[in-house]
């Protein structure tokens, strides 16, 4: 029988809360990063590259590769693997340099 990572670590997360991803409600748990919440929801890509528009999501998971950039609560270029998710967060798929005009 497969056990979840939370069971293996003995984690007891608090109650789930809701965030939105491109306007769609998604459930998240306290202590998750934005990337972890997106992965748990089955969302594997949430950004496109500046050149070519290729899909990207979390790659390294430690904030080194910048593949996981997302717009969080209107602020573009947030590294989703490092940003803790909070109740009511609005995550927006980021296209290229971000919708608010800030470059990396």
Secondary structure layout plus pairing:
Blueprint: H1 5-9, E1 17-21, E2 24-28, H2 34-40, E3 47-48, E4 55-56, E5 69-72, E6 75-79, E7 90-92, E8 94-95
Parallel strand pairs: 1-7, 3-8
Antiparallel strand pairs: 1-2, 3-4, 5-6, 5-7
Report strand %: 25-35%
Structural class: alpha/beta
Oligomer: single chain
Low-confidence stretches: none
Estimate the global geometry from the Cα principal axes: globular
Largest sheet: 5 strands, mixed
Mean pLDDT figure: 89
Strand order of the largest sheet: 2-1-7-5-6
How many strands? Answer: 8
Instruction: Please give the alpha-carbon distance between the first and last residues.
Output: 44 Å
Instruction: Tell me the helix content.
Output: 10-25%
Rg measurement, Å? 14 Å
Strand and helix order: HEEHEEEEEE
Number of alpha- plus pi-helical segments: 2
Can you characterise this structure?
- The chain has 104 residues and is α/β, with parallel strands linked by helices.
- It has a five-stranded mixed β-sheet with strand order 2-1-7-5-6, covered by helices on one side.
- The protein is globular and about 45 Å long.
- Helices cover 12% and strands 27% of the residues.
- It has helices at residues 5-9, 34-40, and strands at residues 17-21, 24-28, 47-48, 55-56, 69-72, 75-79, 90-92, 94-95.
- It contains two helices and eight strands, in the order H-E-E-H-E-E-E-E-E-E.
Summarize the entry for a quick read.
This protein has 104 residues and is α/β, with parallel strands linked by helices. The protein has helices spanning 5-9, 34-40, and strands at 17-21, 24-28, 47-48, 55-56, 69-72, 75-79, 90-92, 94-95. The longest helix is centred in the middle third of the chain and has 7 residues, at 34-40.
